[in-house]
Amino acid sequence: MPSETETPTQSTSTDRAARLAVTVFPVLVLVAGALGLLLPDAFADFTTDVPYLLGVVMFCMGLTMSLGDFKGVAQRPWAVGIGLVAHYVIMPGLGWLIANLLDLSPQLAAGVILVGCAPSGTASNVVTYLARGDVALSVSVATVSTVLAPLVTPPLTLLLAGEYLPVDAGSMVTDILKTVLLPVLAGLVVRLLFGRYVDRVLSALPWLSALTVSVIVAVVVAGSAAAIKSAAAVVLLAVVLHNGLGLALGYGAGKVARLGKPASRAMAFEVGMQNSGLAASLATAHFSPLAALPAAVFSVWHNVSGALVAAWMSYRSRAERIG
Fold it and tell me: Which of 134, 168, 247, 320 gives 263 a disulfide partner, CB atoms 3.0 to 4.6 angstroms apart?
């Protein structure tokens, strides 16, 4: 989203690129998944590169951030706090509940829960913008949830997924620090030091992130290609339920807290959209490629559902103003 340092022309260009990337992103991920499924041997050697690919995505996220994002947290700590609690309570809880209700295998159950324990998705800010939601709140919640991920995601995964598979929470903390927090901070520092030059390439960052996540999905799908045919239906059902209930309960949390409609829209996407790239990377490193399958499917589905829900919310917002 636009920063304080961007000119109106740069802001418009960045917004247009971000909207287009979010719209095309599901198609890119679907194509990548199909390639991984049809040509698994072509991606077999890239499994160990997934954390580095995720680092590229998070570095791009850092490049789009500014100190103003953190000022927003200080200005509305109550609303941001509600968003964080809702995110890290609703989605992990839903993941555990869905894994039990669908009687998923240990690998898939751990994968679904890990998706729920991840921080907010990197596209949630743009989708909130498209939905005419509170973008400032969305950016604040996404930023803090990402910064807190090393402290929150591993213990939550250990608590909820430990009954299915062994979880090395300490090693997971180290991996999140290396693949998420450090690249984000590096991107932020580069933006602060060389903002004039970074602004010139901001419109390309959503595309770079989208392409990189697509490669991650192709690698993850290739790693579990043999098991996808038997597990695809139940994984899709789990992902649709997880994401749909997350969106609904996130919106409901905003309404219960009386944050207003724009903020409630932001809450919906900050709760229901996850950093599935991180979940896929952690699942591949700590569990198995099969455990990363829910994250790969979530990467496709939450962008499709997010775009559709955002379009509906935007339509309702316009209709209410006209009415």
Answer: 134
